[in-house]
Known about the structure:
Radius of gyration: 21 Å
Amino acid sequence: MAEIAPEASFLKNGKLKTALLQHKALSKSGFSERMFGLLFSGLVYPQIWEDPDVDMAGMELAAGHRIITIGSGGCNMLAYLSRHPASIDVVDLNPHHIALNRLKLAAFRSLPAHADVVRLLAAEGRASNSKAFDTFVAPALDTATRRYWQKRTLNGRRRISVFDRNIYRTGLLGRFIAAGHLIARLHGVDLTEMAKTRSLREQRQFFEDRIAPLFDRPFVRWLTGRKSSLFGLGIPPQQYDELASLADEGSIAPVLRQRLEKLACHFPLRDNYFAWQAFARRYPQPHEGTLPTYLKPEHYRAIRDNADRVTVHHATFTELLSGKQAGTVDRYVLLDAQDWMNDRQLNELWAEISRTAAAGARVIFRTAAERSIIEGRLSPTIRDQWTYLEGRSQDLNLQDRSAIYGGFHIYVKKA
């Protein structure tokens, strides 16, 4: 699932970023772009939807590396801390994601124990979480972030109270998953029953018998034939057409079926917290499965000790890089931000990446479609500085438990 792309259409300083707006406002394409930008102006991803274990393998992440990554839900940034990097710069233009990243970092720094962090960030139905925030986390936050979480919304509750319930059912992604469950129920399928399966064989049986037939239903095919139906997955209008071309049927239902099949059937449910969020809308209990990498007990001490090595910036990737000295960055994590960019933006970004990259630096990113988004679009001067690890990229893409992307890509700076 696509993440918050710094170069995408977010409100900053009261103005809509123009990167995504490539068509006239009154045109059909322009309307789709503006609707997409409007939906992405609020909280989108309480959980990042890229597999951090694949990220760290692709980066060959090691102690002392200097990383720049897009923030989104903040889960992967925290997982990277388990490898003791020298520094992590987090960038995002969505202020809700900025506040969430800073909250998660403060939770590790200030809560008394690992169990308290898990209770706040992974448990549901815990009314004590907002009290733990007031006692421990709030004093560790900067003023702006503390005010963000203490602000009361239209329902009269403070924003932090969402952690008393289940933050993962909120945001654009949470609502998209809820809509998927509703559509399935209207067709007689309870997706939460996937959580009752006990083997890969049972998972596949449930998918083939209950889930796969949904993609042949007329309403589902009609719905997935519209670009707006996938905004909740973070797939911008520009990428919908490329996905549709893979199906050759005027609907991307076959593509979605294929990727949901990977999520449901290719990894044991016990080991795939992405599947738990998709099908059960929560994280597993200890007897059911494992938590995200950053919440596993064996990584708690390293993340807590290294949390001060992270700086969260309300900026674009390119903007941040423009202030860096040459040769000072080792690893770049672009998520799927490039899916949103035009050729000019891609070349501006990669010009700064190439300038700031240290010897042997690595760039990783994902794409909604299978092919690398930069091939044939970067200037030869920039492209010739990088080696594409195509085979390794394909191998790791198969291991990505989030399963929703078409491609995972690794580029290495030449000597």
